[in-house]
Amino acid sequence: MSFLCFERSEKRRIVEKLIQEELPKFSNVPRVVILKNQKLKGIAGYNRVDDTLYISDSLNSEESIKEILADGYFASKNLNDIITHELAHKMHWDSAKRLYNKKKKVYNSLEEAKKHLDEDLIKYVKMQESTDFFYVKNISQNASEAWGMNNINELVAEVAVLNQKLEDKVLLNKVKGVLKWT
Predict the structure, then answer these.
(1) What is the pLDDT of residues 124-145, one digit of tens each?
(2) What is the DSSP secondary-structure string of 108-171?
(3) Strand ordering across the sheet containing 44-47
(4) By three-state DSSP, how is residue 55 classified?
(5) How far is CA 93 from the centre of its chain?
């Protein structure tokens, strides 16, 4: 794993140290870039185009992380959860890439393969939502807002964070399925 900080500061060194303590718990970690909070839209993000995990320098202590996550907008409760969330995005796109590369004659693009990969999951969530209006919101506000914009990606990442804490094991298994397509 490689780290990149565009400007060295005490804040960024602390973030890098905190991240290095968590990353050994994960596999397939992309390059990590620590950015000033003002340069990053959000607290962290995964960019599939350059296969990079971006982390905000605002995540510079357990206290600041807890404060940022205190409103419950995300399923994440700590730095490990934040990394899990972002790496779930990577796994989701990597899964779509494997599908696309295996069936290039079937799909015109990576996005088309991902859309196909997500179909069963989307169908299931819509079915659950038809009987429980708050189904997605009960996962997280973040997942709910993205779902409202026809985006399944945040739901996938939030379910990855919740993992065994999630009561709906069917949903959990469907999410695991889109993350591990072979």
Answers:
(1) 999 999 999 999 999 999 999 9
(2) SSHHHHHHHHHHHHHHHHHHHHHH-TTTTTTT-HHHHHHHHTT--HHHHHHHHHHGGG-S-HHH
(3) 3-5, 31-35, 52-56, 44-47
(4) strand
(5) 10
